[in-house]
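Section 5: illustrative case.
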């Protein structure tokens, strides 16, 4: 029985249409079939819309049941929230068809969530499409995911398209290509990346690595990079769980757009994560795709497929766990390639990085680091967080820790986790209480003396991770 106001999105259809105007822009349309599943009348719904100069929203049009309506301002006066009235009011069990469309023409260069330029675009669902809010009031039936969701992308015929969801075919429409995708609860957050790219598709060890670049890559270099990345992809699936019955290709994509870190970084970023892939700027590619620097960067972003895309850290833990698990993932990959000696070396690097970053800001416990902290006051948490997982392996066994992480990803897929869920997963695997260990690493400053003595080394090979 319904206990309060609420509605269900029975079906949503999202469409992104790239238009090669000057400047280029996206036309967005979102259509929802909604059913009132609450116990009362609803006079309106609210939608959070893209806003700010990095989105450049224009020409908003809204209709309810095919009739255009004028939106009203939200109570807080926010320009990013549109209140959509119902006349007459929306009764329980009734359905409504809601449609919103607008243009996105950025006035400034893009970021890790949204970017449009003359030849490509990147759009996360949360940065381009509306987000329908649950109604307010007591005993609210909070917004449930859509029962059925589809994504359509319209691009010039010579564009490559990479998007979230299951491909449902494509067709030509005039001089454009239309791609259709189905999105379900196991899909990653809907996104689209498309552009005019050179594609090189290479197979290794049963997996496929796809390079999309602005200029063709030397074939021998692409082959060399593929061998390592395919091995890392297999390592991650073995260590952190199989997310797919048939693993999709890994995509390594170049962009000329400015990138900013999606998860609490600072300023420009060399790369950002995409599900089963990485989007890297031109400077990263100039380093050389067979260099350890480039490949480690791709492996770091690929680690976010498990820890960031399949599951993501809760806001209070994201400043640490989001990046820490990606750093830890690259260590696991290095160990798979080079054995225990490589694990020792990578751990010593993380320890050195922690000490270097701590010179820029006073240390504080991991539990107190927040994403809102200035970069220099949280960056040491990334390396200490990764070392925390190395410490867990040392104390409780590598297989136990990795099995626990795989279980966490599988059981919480599509959800957020925090330190409590992490601890519960490892305790379930080890059948031991981890309270003292967690308090030592999360509540105290610095690195435990025993751990530091085990890994702190001085060697010529130990360069800075920065």
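Designed sequence:
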């Amino acid at each position: 029985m319904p206990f309060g106001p609420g509605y269900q999105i029975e079906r949503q259809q999202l469409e992104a249409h790239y238009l090669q105007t000057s400047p280029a822009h996206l036309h967005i349309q979102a259509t929802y079939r909604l059913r009132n599943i609450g116990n009362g009348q609803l006079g309106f719904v609210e939608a959070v819309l893209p806003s700010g100069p990095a989105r450049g929203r224009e020409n908003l049009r809204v209709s309810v049941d095919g009739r255009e309506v004028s939106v009203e301002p939200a109570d807080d006066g926010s320009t990013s929230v549109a209140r959509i009235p119902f006349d007459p009011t929306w009764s329980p069990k009734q359905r409504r068809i809601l449609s919103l469309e607008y243009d996105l023409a950025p006035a400034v260069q893009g970021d890790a969530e949204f970017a449009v330029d003359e030849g490509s675009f990147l759009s996360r669902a949360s940065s381009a499409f509306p987000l329908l809010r649950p109604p307010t009031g007591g005993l609210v039936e909070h917004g449930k995911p859509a029962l059925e969701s589809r994504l359509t992308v319209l691009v010039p015929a010579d564009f490559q398209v990479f998007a979230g969801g299951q491909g449902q075919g494509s067709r030509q429409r005039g001089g454009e290509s239309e791609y259709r995708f189905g999105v379900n609860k196991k899909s990653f957050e809907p996104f689209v990346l498309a552009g005019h790219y050179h594609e090189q598709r290479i197979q290794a060890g049963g997996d496929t690595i796809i390079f999309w670049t602005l200029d063709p890559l030397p074939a021998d270099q692409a082959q060399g990079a593929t061998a390592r990345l395919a091995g890392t992809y297999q390592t991650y699936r073995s260590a952190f769980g199989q997310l797919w019955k048939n693993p999709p290709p890994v995509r390594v994509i170049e962009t000329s757009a400015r990138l900013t870190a999606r998860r609490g970084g600072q300023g420009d970023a060399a790369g950002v994560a995409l599900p089963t892939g990485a989007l890297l700027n031109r400077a990263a590619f100039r380093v050389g795709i067979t260099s350890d620097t480039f490949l480690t960067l791709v492996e770091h972003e690929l680690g976010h497929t498990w820890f960031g895309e399949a599951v993501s850290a809760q806001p209070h833990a994201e400043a640490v766990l989001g990046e820490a698990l990606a750093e830890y993932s690259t260590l696991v990959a290095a160990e798979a390639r080079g054995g225990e000696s490589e694990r020792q070396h990578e751990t010593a690097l993380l320890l050195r990085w922690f000490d270097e970053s701590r010179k820029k800001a006073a240390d504080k416990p991991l539990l107190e680091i927040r994403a809102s902290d200035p970069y220099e006051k949280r960056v040491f948490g990334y390396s200490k967080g990764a070392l925390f997982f190395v410490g867990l392996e040392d104390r409780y066994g590598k297989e136990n820790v990795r099995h626990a992480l795989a279980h966490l990803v599988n059981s919480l897929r599509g959800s957020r986790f925090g330190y409590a869920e992490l601890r519960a997963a490892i305790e379930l695997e080890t059948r031991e209480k981890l309270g003292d260990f967690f308090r030592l690493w999360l509540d105290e400053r610095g690195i435990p003396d025993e751990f530091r003595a085990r890994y702190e080394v001085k060697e010529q090979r130990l360069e800075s991770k920065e």
